[in-house]
Design a protein that fits this description.
By secondary structure, this protein is α/β, with parallel strands linked by helices. Strands 1, 2, 3, 4, 5, 6 and 17 form a seven-stranded mixed sheet that branches. Strands 8-15-9-10-11 form a five-stranded parallel sheet. Strand 10, helix 6 and strand 11 form a beta-alpha-beta unit. Helix 1 packs parallel to helix 2, helix 1 runs parallel beside helix 7 and helix 5 packs parallel to helix 6. The chain is elongated, with a radius of gyration of 22 Å. The two termini are 23 Å apart. 43% of the residues are buried.
């Protein structure tokens, strides 16, 4: 059987696409993958999703899954191992199992880059975050640290000064990699301090983060810093390994799109953080998922019309 729609990835973009295509009675098949739920599973509370005053990230994902299931979405546990986007129908492999589809919505997201500390992992959602715009509001009045030296780190630091008493940028080098204008803005902000040539060796806390253990890369000296939270801003890695050589990717690996979701291959759409280098919000990802679903509907309608015309000619 050839599917109408296959969706790879089950974050807010994929689930929004599932809801819309399921309501069209396309019976979409969602392949959830190892990172099922996306970045929202690492978010303790969400307060900026329209219409929902406050909800835990995992709860929002569960609610969207329930909504998609209600309309007929089918879920498959497993990781896609290979795709052939130029064949018709489009081929998707989960292990050795082949699935074919008229349209494919890619919503595999982007994974935050972490420092790789065990203590960091233990406190994700309990004071450690990779999304300042998602979680900054919850750190009102607290001293915060940001790890990184690029544009993302400067943007996060400046944004966090809206809520936090002080923001300390911890950078492993003695100069920033950020653009000149972002450096100037951050350096001129009285709430932002800098700790140079330093790395975080351990995140300290009990139920939540209370401090950091630091190490100077110049002197080897160890020190501790009291903070109420830690934001990691060393970049994201889009989950696009499967699509190399088949889709156009930018220099950072994000899928290049037009109108947010068009990939350049008919019937193949990309939605959410896998193609979004800037916004990275649940609401914008959901919106892109809706766009992808509507594009898929259009494509399927054209295919059905063409098939009807061929049948009449026989």
């Amino acid at each position: 059987m050839v599917e109408n729609v296959i969706i790879i990835g089950s974050g807010p973009a994929g689930l929004a696409a599932a809801i819309y295509t399921a309501r069209e009675e396309f019976k979409p098949l969602m392949i959830k993958g190892a990172g099922a739920g996306g970045q929202l599973l690492l978010t303790t509370d969400v307060e900026n999703y329209p219409g929902i005053e406050r909800i835990a990230g995992p709860e929002l994902i569960r609610s969207m899954e329930k909504h998609a299931t209600k309309f007929g979405t089918r879920f498959l546990e497993g990781d896609v191992t290979k795709v052939d986007l130029k064949s018709r129908p489009i081929k998707v492999y989960v292990g050795s199992k082949l699935y074919e589809t008229h349209t494919l919505i890619i919503s595999t997201g982007a994974s935050a880059k972490w420092m790789g500390l065990a203590s960091e992992k233990n406190f994700i959602g309990r004071g450690v975050s990779s999304c300042a715009t998602c979680d900054g509001f919850f750190f009102r009045g607290k001293p915060i640290a940001v790890v990184g030296g690029g544009d993302s780190a400067m943007e996060d630091a400046i944004f966090l000064t809206k809520f936090c008493n002080s923001v300390t940028v911890i950078h492993r080098r003695d100069s920033l990699r950020a653009s000149k204008i972002m450096q100037e803005r951050a350096l001129a902000n009285p709430k932002i301090k800098f700790v140079w040539d330093t790395v975080v060796e351990e995140v300290i806390g009990d139920a939540k983060v209370t401090g950091l253990r630091l190490k100077s890369l110049k002197t080897g000296e160890a020190s501790e810093m009291k903070v109420g939270g830690l934001f990691i801003a060393i970049g994201h890695q889009p989950n696009t390994e499967l699509f190399k050589g088949q889709l156009e990717l930018d220099k950072e690996g994000y899928i290049v799109t037009k109108d947010d979701v068009l990939t350049g291959i008919d019937g193949v759409y990309a939605a959410g953080d896998v193609a979004d280098r800037f916004y990275k919000q649940a609401a914008t990802a959901s919106g892109a998922g809706v766009k992808a679903a509507l594009r898929a509907r259009e494509h399927i309608s054209i295919l059905k019309f063409e098939e009807e015309q061929k049948s009449k000619q026989r």
